[in-house]
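Quarterly update, task 2.4: NAP-bound model.
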Amino acid sequence: MDKIQMKTPLVEMDGDEMTRILWQMIKDKLLLPFVDLKTEYYDLGLKNRDATDDAVTVQAAEAIKKYGVGVKCATITPNAQRVEEYNLKKMWKSPNGTIRAILDGTVFRAPVLVDGIHPTVSTWEKPITLARHAYGDIYKNTEMKAPAGSKAELCVTTADGKETRALIHDFVGDGVIMGMHNTDDSIRGFAKACFRFALDTKQDLWFSTKDTISKTYDHHFKDIFNELYETEFREEFEKAGITYFYTLIDDAVARVIRSKGGFIWACKNYDGDVMSDMVATAFGSLAMMTSVLVSPDGKYEYEAAHGTVTRHYYRHLKGEETSTNSVATIFAWSGALRKRGEMDSLPQLVAFADRLEKATIQTIETGIMTKDLYGLSTLEEKKAVNSEEFLDAIAERL
Ligand code: NAP
Ligand code: MG
């Protein structure tokens, strides 16, 4: 059989622990037999990040900028315990944070749905994609305590030294205050990534804030989305037969719960943080959540939403059997290959990505699954298999 050819390399970012083991198995069993895989390889495993003073993470992000599509394995974000365990020179920053800062992206998360595993919300038939703005607001805030009798004000000093003040509160008793910000550039980048992703995936886009209460701050988000939609995206949306609609977050929450799914829900940073956890949990499992970072200029980085599954890795090191779910990592690869195929006009590569996803879903739907899903599945005939057997079953079907 002739292997499917590629034109441009994918930026491949290897990672840590159990997901690093799965990474190699996925390549060996599901990709290399079928695709003449072209990748530019970056080892983001913690050892190599330490050896290169984390330069490898920056190089990988620069490579995504150059080529347009990357696929990333889960990586350890070091804490004090990891510094000791790996004898690190430094407590290196989160690779995802570094890559996000360089690409200036928005994170889109969507669940993989399979028969036999039912969302807690019974009306959800299709995935809900959560788009979270990843800059500013409460995550970059300044806060203080305000003692009784104090007066708190907002003060903006312009470049020419002019001050504008607004009263926050005259405190009779003790209290607290908080200042936060966002920038038009960042909000615009977020909006563009959302509009583009909606067009890419042919799904409606919902955006919600609390603009009735926050008449300047949240309203500004709404205005920027609206302006971009009218000036740059309306025509393309109409051509694609999809809609953009803005609604108050209270209304969005109610509509989401009553919906059938199948749309993108864009949220401000805090709303997205909380709502993505809620949506992921209600869909069943973190091991079934896909994640893609999209930059405003259309660069894509695909990954799994979960971590390196440390507990399973320690079992693996002791020679014990593991049953680790590789679905989100497989979908990171299929997502990246499909995008590469679309960008390079390679319909065979796009079709392969579709078949890989279908084979994965069908394997689970015929009752072969890892232990985490076995516990959730309502199928009558089901079998829990180990990490490798699961991949072998997909390979056979593929
Ligand atoms: P985790 O790796 O997501 O695992 C948490 C638990 O969830 C696991 O112990 C396992 O439960 C279950 N689980 C997660 N993914 C699974 C899968 N694919 N198959 C089966 N079960 C799965 O999170 P963590 O333990 O908090 O973090 C471990 C390391 O990952 C940390 O060093 C952290 O820095 C890193 N991390 C990286 C990323 C990323 O690169 N994007 C994201 C989050 C965390 P059971 O043990 O009960 O089976
Ligand atoms: Mg959270």
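Highlight for this quarter: The mean pLDDT is 95.
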